[in-house]
Design brief:
The chain is an alpha+beta fold and about 500 residues long. The chain folds into 3 domains: about 110 residues, Uridine Diphospho-n-acetylenolpyruvylglucosamine Reductase, domain 2; about 110 residues, Uridine Diphospho-n-acetylenolpyruvylglucosamine Reductase, domain 3, CATH 3.30.465.10; about 180 residues, Vanillyl-alcohol Oxidase, Chain A, domain 3 (3-Layer(aba) Sandwich). About 30% of the residues lie in helices and about 20% in strands. It is built from 16 helices and 21 strands. The strands form 4 sheets. It has an 8-stranded antiparallel sheet. The longest helix has 14 residues. The chain starts with 17 loop residues before the first helix and ends in a 40-residue tail after the last helix. InterPro entries: FAD-bd_PCMH (IPR016166), FAD-bd_PCMH-like_sf (IPR036318), FAD-bd_PCMH_sub2 (IPR016169), Oxid_FAD_bind_N (IPR006094).
């Protein structure tokens, strides 16, 4: 199977008057706060996300568009929208803030885009968890948790704009994954409330294992109206930028930091070509830039305040340079967390749109695959690594920048990464399985059958869903992790 293959979609099943009929059914709810949008400008805005990271997706999703955008004000209105879509046979695609990178929120067969940002209440806060509605911004959640001495465990680099359900439905991890792993790891999603897509929608409370099929499913098997997530103790984090002589030493120092009982929330590695494209903070920025630094690799870290002294000792022992230390999100320029994860690619493409990227979990020892790929691809490949915890084991994920040379070259590169033992989380495809799970998750498909029996939710994004002939597009396989910190339903 080609790594850049896409499912074949049939024609739109809803008739031309279905959208008009659906609008007439929903218009009475406008007095209660429901927003209906049909202008071409709005449809273009709410039918897109940040899939332009991928030249492949740019081409493949060029003609995809919404026919109606709706923003409910409460979960009761979500049920009304679900009922209307089911009665008229109209596809429904979920969207938060639209910061996803893989087309998760792009409607492949038209229909309705449901924007969740109107559902933004935090319902409850406990000692170990909180429950909030899908459109809550992550930064806003942290602000409410802070007086309780609590904080989010995980957050994408789009933390300031991303929504909670967008992160859970389409993201995988991000800042915090070095400690807490990925969203699909046990204990990181405690429960969801969903609305089914049926003529008479049901509101279901799914706890523990029952909630897992909704995680990282691109909004294909349930309309999320609330989520319960665990919290971490509030910490005072400091941003550190460390210059290291070469990639080998940077990896070694990163491993030493993780083994040294230092509490960290983020640890990323950028090589010189990647670092040269980053908007380093001022006034320290000049010292951080590659032209002014003797380092060839940069480590970006978030370290808890009590462990700063030990961190400085490790940096000095490794003969590395501490280029910047400051309290998190204080001082000029971007927070360093926004120079990590998918923001790294964002900043690189802002300078040179000829870059795209891959997402990999590197085999151990990591330098074996890195050397082989670097030797073969030279300057067409530049390294960006993220320290993660995968199923309880410390690992390095790679999100390298790749010079765009067409689909054939990209396919060859991806094949080589797999041959070298890397786990590929393909950011140039549109289905849940091909983008990260590695195979059809039977639990996700079963959840879709229960919650969306007509297959109207985000059609084309779940390869395991039966096609028109009743055959499944793939074979069942255990679910896995993905590396994106972006959102689906994306928010």
């Amino acid at each position: 199977m080609a790594l850049l293959s896409f499912p074949e979609l049939g024609p739109r099943r809803h008739h031309s008057g279905a959208i008009d009929a659906l609008v007439r059914q929903l218009e009475p709810l406008e007095k209660a706060g429901l927003v209906l949008r049909r202008s071409q400008q709005d449809l273009k805005r709410y039918g897109r996300d940040a899939f332009d990271y991928s030249p492949v997706l740019q081409e493949h999703l060029r003609g995809a568009a919404a026919e109606l955008a709706v923003r409910p004000a409460d979960s009761g209105q979500v049920e009304a929208i679900a009922a209307a879509c089911a009665c008229h046979g109209v596809p429904l695609t979920l969207r938060g803030a639209g910061t996803g990178n893989y087309g998760q929120a792009v409607p492949l067969l038209g229909g309705v885009v449901l924007e969740t940002t109107g559902l933004d209440r935090i319902r409850s806060i406990g000692q170990a968890s909180f429950t909030a509605e899908p459109g809550c911004r992550l930064q806003a959640i942290d602000r409410v948790l802070e007086p309780h001495g609590l904080a989010l465990r995980l957050a994408p680099s789009t933390y300031r704009t991303a929504t909670l359900a967008g992160f859970v439905a389409g993201g995988s991890g991000g800042i915090g994954s070095v400690r807490w792993g990925f969203l699909r790891d046990p204990g990181n999603l405690l429960g969801v409330e969903i609305v089914t897509l049926e003529p008479s929608p049901r509101r279901l409370q799914l706890d523990g294992a029952a909630a897992q099929p909704i995680c990282h499913a691109y909004g294909t098997n349930g309309i999320i109206t609330a989520l319960t997530l665990p919290v971490a103790p509030l910490r005072r984090w400091h941003e550190l930028l460390i210059g290291v002589a070469d990639l080998d030493q940077a990896l070694a120092l990163g491993d030493t930091i993780r083994q040294g009982e230092i509490e960290i929330r983020q640890l990323a590695l950028l090589d010189r070509p990647v670092a040269a494209l980053m908007p380093w903070p001022e006034p320290q920025g000049q010292a951080c830039r590659p032209a002014a630094a003797r380092a060839s690799c940069w480590l970006v870290a978030l370290v808890s305040e009590p462990h700063l002294a030990r961190m400085r000792e490790l940096v000095e022992a490794a003969h590395a340079d501490l280029l910047l230390q400051r309290p998190e999100r204080q001082g000029g320029g971007l927070p360093l967390g926004e120079i990590c994860w998918n923001h790294t690619t964002l900043h690189a493409r802002a300078v040179d749109p000829g870059w795209t990227y891959l997402q990999l979990l590197l085999p151990q020892p990591e330098m074996t695959a890195i050397r082989q790929l670097s030797m073969h691809w030279g300057t067409q490949l530049s390294w960006h690594l993220e320290a993660v915890c995968s199923e309880g084991t410390p690992r390095w994920a790679a999100m390298p920048l790749v010079r765009w040379r067409g689909t054939e070259a990209l396919e060859r590169l991806m094949r080589q990464t797999v041959d070298l033992g890397c786990v590929l989380f393909n950011p140039h495809v549109i289905t849940v399985e091909d983008g990260g799970l590695g195979g059809v998750d039977a639990h996700q498909v079963a959840a879709k059958l229960r919650h969306d029996p007509a297959g109207l939710m985000n059609p084309g994004k779940l390869r395991g869903w039966p096609d028109a002939a009743g055959h499944r597009q793939g074979s069942a396989a255990p679910s896995g992790i993905g590396l994106t910190d972006g959102e689906a339903a994306p928010g």
